[in-house]
Fold this sequence. Notes:
This protein is mostly helical. It folds into two domains: 1-31; 36-131, Substrate Binding Domain Of Dnak, Chain:A, Domain 2 (Up-down Bundle). It is built from five helices and no strands. α2 (38-53) runs antiparallel to α4 (61-79), α2 (38-53) packs parallel to α5 and α4 (61-79) packs antiparallel against α5 (83-131).
Amino acid sequence: MKNFYLLKSYQIHRLVVFVAAAIFMAGCASTPPTPAPTEQIAVSRSAISSAISAGGNEFAPVQVKAAMDKMESADKAMADKNYVLARRLAEEAQVDAKLAETTARAAKAQKSADALQESNRVLRQEIDRKTK
Length: 132
């Protein structure tokens, strides 16, 4: 009788392991392959173009260079079919490009504000000179 329970216990153990392995394999088989991040690549390229047209090369050259370097690395990852890395690099390039664009726009706005303050200062001097 004792052998009967050991055999039954062993069979249950084997069945549990088999079911767990089957579930694990089914889970792995159902994972879809990572699609190519072509849309993210296009969005990142557009962000880099916007940064350059906003004056990024003049006011934020480090960020523009970083974005372009990451975009180049993303292209290489795409060619190697490493889509996860390509997507990550493209997203990072987009963030760097947006930073460059924002920095360039802020620098231009500051430059305009400084020019306006200088104009006001000159006008005040003229007014003060004419009133004396």
